[in-house]
Amino acid sequence: MTMLLFAACIDEKEHENNPRGNFEALWKIMDEHYCFFDYKQKELGVDWDEVHERYSRQVDQGMSNAQLFEVLGNMLSELRDGHVNLASSFDLARNWSWHEDFPANFSHSVQQNYLGTGYRIAAGMRYRILDDNIGYLYCGSFSNTFGEGNLDEILFHFMACNGLIVDIRDNGGGALTSAEQLAARFTNEKLHVGYMQHKTGKGHNDFSAMQEQHLKPSKGIRWQKKVVVLTNRAVYSAANEFVKYLKCCPNATIVGDRTGGGAGMPFSSELPNGWSVRFSACPMFDAQKQSTEFGIDPDFFVGLNEDDRTRGIDTIIEFARRLIKNEH
After folding, report:
1. 3-class DSSP state of 245
2. Residues paired with 126 in a beta bridge
């Protein structure tokens, strides 16, 4: 659930190492550096000053570390941001509602019926040619480093296929550079894919002007036929960005469920007691300047049918196969 590009650390040393000091330090770090306050207030009704008042009453100088951690974690969960975490030596406060509150729409056991046992593996990706001459590539994480040679070999293997399915369901992100590398295989020209901003001050609205994001075509083998990208709610962070890029590619279609989101580049800081906090600091937007923090809609909403699942059939893969064969 991370974006490894542009990660940074913010150092805060103004508060005492006690429950009150750590509470105030955390609230201030977020107040000055978190990038989605206005958006979360609009969408969720989050008032960060009100949050301070409410949780401040729960802080007591005699409370244990476990009690303090619970209060601080609950305060952060008000933002419902998967990039917001508080880490101690004994626990990780997190909010995974972006996928836990929704249908999985993915089954590894059902997927195995399509991969079989003779599938290939390269740079953490699994792939094979299905029996109807459609390529199937599963990329479950962007945490792996892709060699350009890996991607060349994979696409060369699929060269005679009628189309390609790129399945990124349950991909929680990783390195944005890896997402860009794979996306660059699906365009022949430089594409304007979105925008990014940077924090320029401590105010909630202190941002740089929107800077354009572009996807440049790879110098390696590029895919020229239909490609269908499969998504579910567990697609997050760098994987969410991958979907944003492919939305701009001419031969790509997105099928499945809305992605989980995660459109803020994460930064990190440390509390006086050594606990680390990670948070969204650089907001990113699609080509229409709309935030993708709460996810991206597919071109076709398709869920994994329970009857199909019990019979070992993946409804979403089958829809993609018919789409490639012009049956939709």
Report:
1. helix
2. 121, 138
Report the pLDDT value the prediction gives residue 13, as an integer from 0 to 100: 59
pLDDT, residue 3, reads 53
> Quick one: which of 246, 137, 253 has its CA closest to 186?
246
Higher pLDDT, 75 or 97: 75
- Round to whole Å and give the CA distance between 37 and 47: 8
Please report the beta strands in the chain, taking only residues with DSSP state E, as ranges in sequence order: 9-10, 85-87, 92-93, 120-122, 125-129, 135-138, 164-167, 191-196, 211-215, 227-231, 252-256, 264-270, 276-286, 300-301
- Spatial neighbors of 201 by CB under 8 A, at least 6 apart, are none
The span from the CA of 157 to the CA of 121, in Å, is 12
**pTM of this structure:** 0.92
Closest to 314 measured CA to CA, from 260, 258, 256, 259 = 256
